[in-house]
Amino acid sequence: RSYEWPGNVRELENKVQRAVLMADSPFLQPSDLGFEGKVPAPLAPQAPLESGISLKVARDRVERELVGTVLSEQGGNIAKAAEALGVSRPTLYDLMKKHGMGGS
To answer: What is this structure's pTM?
Structure first.
């Protein structure tokens, strides 16, 4: 199942580690992560990849889309977007420049 997560990756990692330590059973349940009563998020439609696409091209596409999405979600705030992506601000600027997104 897929659930919306409002925090960043580090927060999710901490939540999962805590749930593993505190769980009553050998398998984590949605309630162990605080998802009780929440409806699973709908799965995002996946665009089919054309055959013959290289791994580098596929990674670049995903990277560009993710950087653009996070920047939009953070209202263009570089510091917040970098934190959400788990990278430094200089790294985010490099990614923006790499993908022609107006980075300096």
So the answer is: 0.52
